[in-house]
Amino acid sequence: MFFLTLSDKTKSILRKSPATLCVALSIALFFPPVVHSTGEPSYAEEIRRCVIEDKVYLLQNIRQKVSLPAEKLVIDALLSEDGPQAITLYQKQLTNYPDPVLDQISNSRIAAYSVAKTTTIPLPPVTIPNTAPKVYTKQTKPITTPEVAKPIVPTPQKEAIAKKVEAQPIVVIKQEPAVVVNKPFTLQCGSFKTKENAEALAKKISLTSPAKVIQAGELYKVRLKATYSSKEEAERAAKKLPFEAIALQVL
């Protein structure tokens, strides 16, 4: 193919010099030109790099630059979201516009699509809700015949008890209102831990007013024997005493 694209003058030179022909063929095989025979630049390597690096989105920018049919077909197939349409484009590229770099992409994509098409992924079971309307049946109660109450026949013993109850007079008890009794108050003159000290104070106070010793827990308290109906009355009496005293309610 490389030999056919040369001019007639170049062909005649190569026929006369086989060594020159070998050098030319080596250059054509090992150093392929970047520019195609039509003079259009090739972006096949950039397309292959985008596919390898999984950066297919970059093909949108390359798509505006390419002019070769093979590259246009491969880019359209890579950017297509329709699987069967993409396979058709790949096959068209392989058949009509073969390219060593692009052929690898087209063949690998066709093989991947074939594997995906034959592999079935089991779907999760779908439960269909029961949308049928519920039918409610009216429950009927069994018809029962009401029982007729049997007449109560009084016995001679029951009749005698009933007559005795009727003969007894009815006694009405009148309830008297509850009387609220106020607890009296007294005067306390001192509180001691020892009984001897409490009794000594009680004897001293008894010279003026009778007193007594009351034990409350661990203490001995000296109180007057006199009681008062209210706290105010007890406080008035305390003011008249020649010693100190406090009013307390007798429990």
Short characterization:
This protein is an alpha+beta fold and 251 residues long. It folds into three domains: 1-32, no CATH class; 38-118, no CATH class; 185-249, Sporulation related repeat (Alpha-Beta Plaits).
Number of domains: 3
Strand order of the largest sheet: 2-3-1-4
Oligomer: single chain
Flag low-confidence runs: 1-7, 20-35
Biggest beta sheet summary: 4 strands, antiparallel
Total of DSSP H or I helical runs spanning 4+ residues: 10
Helix content: 40-55%
Report how far the terminal alpha carbons are from each other: 133 Å
Q: How many distinct beta strands?
A: 4
Q: In terms of structural class, how would the helical and strand content be classed?
A: alpha+beta
How large is the share of residues in beta strands? 5-15%
Please describe what this structure looks like.
The protein has three domains: 32 residues, no CATH class; 81 residues, no CATH class; 65 residues, Sporulation related repeat (Alpha-Beta Plaits). It has a four-stranded antiparallel sheet. It is of the alpha+beta class and 251 residues long. It contains ten helices and four strands; from the N terminus they run ααααααααβαββαβ. The protein is elongated, with a radius of gyration of 63 Å. A hairpin with a 2-residue loop joins strand 2 and strand 3. Helix 1 packs across helix 2, helix 5 runs antiparallel to helix 6 and helix 6 runs antiparallel to helix 7.
